[in-house]
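Sample 1 of the test manifest.
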Amino acid sequence: MSQVSETDLQAWVDARLAPPRQHEIDAYLAEHPDQAERLRAYQAQKRAIKALFDPVLNEALPENLHRLTDAPARPAVDRPPAAFFSRWSLQRLAAGVLVALLGGAAGWLGHAQYQASDRLARLAPLPHQAAVAHVVYSPDVRRPVEVTADQEEQLVKWLSKRLGTPVSPPKLGAVGYELVGGRLLPGNSGPVAQFMYQDASGQRLTLYLSTENGGKAETGFRFAREGQINVFYWVEGKFGYALSAGIDKNELAKVATAVYDQLDRAK
Amino acid sequence: MDSRAILAEIPRLRRYARAMLGDRAAADDLVQDTLERAWCRLAQWRVGSDLRAWLFSIMHNLHVDQLRRPSLPTHSLDDAGDDAPIRPMQSDQLELLDLEAALSQLPDEQRAVLLLVAVEEMSYAEVAAALEIPLGTVMSRLSRGRERLRQIMEGRQPAANLRVVR
């Protein structure tokens, strides 16, 4: 018999040896009871570990995994593939939202930057983040934005690059608001964008755009009130949108609809 | 990529994540992150290659990233107010015999190998691929992990690796 190594002994425990070698080790162990005892302890350990965690296989999938797969808990395996892809297709569509579709869907799917999941985004809820950003920057007379609307092309290029996905401000002239400019802000786990608009009277509103939503939630319009600020917000795929202003809810809803319609058309 | 194949792997991913992290919610978060990353990196997966090894390796890398990332220690206020009684480890033999607790005392890299072999029943080569380590490292971690676990379960402290030499 050739020399017995520790690797042989481990492989014996896992029954990974070719039968002749397995028999050789059997013979070796018959002569080395202390080693045999050690290996039997490993085998018992292995069975115990498996028994300890096997029940997890039969647990129903939790809601977050459910949503991600868009499939029922147990018979997930029988689900047709199309259903699984649908949510991801929606995400790809959402990438085209607000957007010039610069890189195209493939480019987005392939982009290396890992977007934080909505677990992180829950650190501070979207409407709250947006409202705070609104009250900080919109009253600023001299420097409300980092890049002004007369340099819109640079603004779009810069924010798209920093967010890792193509973004551009919707046109709100039809509802009386013109673009002032935009800026980059820190979100919960990475960069977010803010576009600022104002009407003829100087009333400002901001559109806050985050890509930190992990692509699981899809919401319709939601409304939140943060102090004096009204916020309409919604989530599409990884994108979270929040429109904030200190204006009447109905008027803000009109603008939010205009924003949403443009995104819809972009798809 | 066959989405049904991915769905079929989810229970196994959950089982391994639970065994690695101990905590149910944290484990499912890790699985979720793994699936998200897998979809984002679809282009990197070669059709016909081992899907399970690929997913496990994504999960492993995410887990390692999490361990490296410095995080603020946080405590829920509810938990803090709870004042749950904590049994002293030394005087409680039951604690030492608890397999899950014993596993958690293993170094992460040994536990990972041990679990992939014992729970996932992977071959050594599959473990090496999933963890992106050489086969020899798999074997030495397996050997050390098993011995250490045995000693913990028997209530002995693992032997020190170093001896004082005069």
